[in-house]
Amino acid sequence: xxxxxxxxxxxxxxxxxxxxxxxxxxxxxxxxxxxxxxxxxxxxxxxxxxxxxxxxxxxxxxxxxxxxxxxxxxxxxxxxxxxxxxxxxxxxxxxxxxxxxxxxxxxxxxxxxxxxxxxxxxxxxxxxxxxxxxxxxxxxx
Length: 141
What we know:
Layout: E1 8-9, E2 23-30, E3 33-39, H1 56-76, E4 84-94, E5 103-114, E6 117-126, E7 129-140
Antiparallel strand pairs: 1-2, 2-3, 3-5, 4-7, 5-6, 6-7
C-alpha cells in the first residue's frame, strides 16, 4: 500500500485535463468519502457569457470529485487508474448560482458499491453555503 499525503492535485488522480478538468485538489479522505476543491475559471467551457457556471457543470463537479476520491483509493492499493463513466443522475438540487472566481468545496460520500458500479452523493459548498447537491451512478472500467 502506497502512502500519499494530502492535499493532492486532482490532475494526478483523474484523466480530465484543462479546460474540462473542473476540480483542483483532493483535500481530505475519510474511508470511502472525501472532500475536493475547485476554482471556477473563466476559461471553463461550462461558464456562460455572463460568468455563471452552467447547471450541467454541477453534476460534472460531483463526478470529478468522486473520480479524484476513487483515483486516490486505487493509488493507495497500487492499482492503475481506471476510467469511470457517469451512467445516472438522481436528485440534483441547484440552490444558488455559481460564478467565475468562486472557490468551491465538493463533499463526496460513497453510498453503495457493487462490482464495477458505484453510487455517490455530492454536496457543493461555497464557504458555509451549500449551493447544490445530487447523487450520481458510475460504472468503473
